[in-house]
Amino acid sequence: GRGAGLVRAMERHGVAVVVIAALTPLPDSLAAWAAGSTGLPLRPFLLASALRIVRIAAALLLIDWGLMSVT
To answer: Which phi-psi region, left, alpha or beta, contains residue 33 (left: φ > 0; alpha: ψ -120 to 50)?
Structure first.
């Protein structure tokens, strides 16, 4: 199916896929779906997903400093 590649990546790399999705503009919901479908334990998933806070905080700082535009 359409998500087979992501499931294979989760099976091979585990929580690293969630970390990459959290730190990049990749869709987090797809990584969450793959994590659940492959049985990734909840705690590592939540910790990796929390890295989204770092990405969002960095973007907000760049916007505040005038180094990034929202338009």
So the answer is: alpha
Q: Does residue 2 register a pLDDT over 80?
A: no
User: Residue 14 and residue 46: Cα distance in Å, rounded?
Assistant: 13
pTM (global) more than 0.70: yes
Burial (Cβ within 10 Å: 0-12, 13-18, ≥19) of residue 48: buried
Distance separating the N- and C-terminal Cα atoms of the chain: 35
Q: Closest by alpha carbon to 21, among 55, 57, 44? A: 55
Structure tokens at 41: 């334990």
- Under DSSP, the state recorded for 58 is H
- Dihedral sign computed on CA atoms, order 24, 30, 32, 36: negative
